[in-house]
Amino acid sequence: MKSDYKTDYSCPFCLSYLLLENKLILTARHVSSDEPNESFLLLMNPEIGHYDTVYHPSVKVHEGDKYDFFCPVCHHKLHSDLNDNLVMVQYHDKNGKLFELHFSRVAGQKSTYKIMGRSVETFGIDAPHYLDFINLVNMS
Ligand SMILES: [Zn+2]
Predict the structure, then answer these.
(1) Mean of the pLDDT values across residues 130-140?
(2) Distance from Cα 11 to the centre of ligand 1, integer Å
(3) Model-level pTM?
(4) Is 98 within 8 Å of 91 (Cβ atoms)?
(5) Structural domain tally of the chain?
């Protein structure tokens, strides 16, 4: 199934597309909670390096706290093999190339890594924070 969007996001597990109405849609839950009903939908700016989010006003997101992220379709936990503080989704660029997009699961932390093979492009002012953990060639 090919995406008709210029760029897109998909779940690495079920391959469902996660971009709708120009928002990356994920499910999130505070790391201290095991209650599925304490999860919430999180809409993220899909432009890499932009960190504005939208969530229901009943949800309180605490800066500096860690959150678990899940695919809203298959509910698989989204995790990064590179670092425990990162989450990974698949990013499809406008040329149809597939990247791993790793970003921080700490609220308010601006660090994103766009990775293909052994090359990484970094985004966000907090990106250097995790670079030491990522044994890849920085192409930024
Ligand atoms: Zn999925």
Answers:
(1) 66
(2) 5
(3) 0.91
(4) yes
(5) 1
